[in-house]
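Can't paste images in this forum, so I'm doing it all in text. The chain is below; anyone willing to post the predicted structure tokens underneath?
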Amino acid sequence: MPTDEWERGYSAGYRAAHRTDVRDITSERGKAAPSPKRKRTRTKSKRDGKMSRALKTVNARAKKKNGGFKKGWSQSRVMKEAHKLARRK
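Text version of the structure:
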């Protein structure tokens, strides 16, 4: 009966390698996976809406067709102008 001993040794090695001896895979089957909790989406305030519109209008004035800033403009200046415009609205 050397084959039985070999099979027992093989299956023990397989279980140890795949860690099936520690956790029972079959018990998790058939159960519904827990649904992940959805994150609450951020609501846009009136101020945020005004700011985004102002930023879009100022960006259109400050950028070239290739996406770079025109001479004399920078991101900080665009933000300054957008804040001014949003406050006025």
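The mean pLDDT is 81. The CA atoms of residues 55 and 79 lie 7 Å apart.
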